[in-house]
Amino acid sequence: MARIKNIDLPGDKHTCIGLTAIYGIGRPLAKTICKDAKVDEAKKIKDLTEDEINALRKEVDKYVVEGDLRRDVQMNIKNKMEINCYQGIRHKKGLPVRGQRTNRNARTRKGRGKVVANKKKAGK
Fold first, then answer.
1. Would you tell me the crossing angle of helices 66-82 and 86-93 to the nearest 10 degrees?
2. Residue 65 clears pLDDT 70, i.e. is over it
């Protein structure tokens, strides 16, 4: 079991895919890291040698990932909320930030539907 940036990488996956378990590393960056560390990206993580894992660790250290990246993102959101920009206001209200429609979707951001009290059917 390889451990990089305090994340256990899944041993049954290819190196390129397993690196994406680290927050901030996607498929393209994982391929770049494998190429720069001279590690075969088709090799399974459980089959990597200690030297290859150390090479991957050195390459990953060059990028902002995991805790530092999470902290940066949270600080950026907090900054937007403090200066009351449009995106900050949307964050405060718990609404979608990037221009999505809200009249029929956005359940992920808005939460479950709210029940309206004493709503009676018209006509009877």
1. 100
2. yes
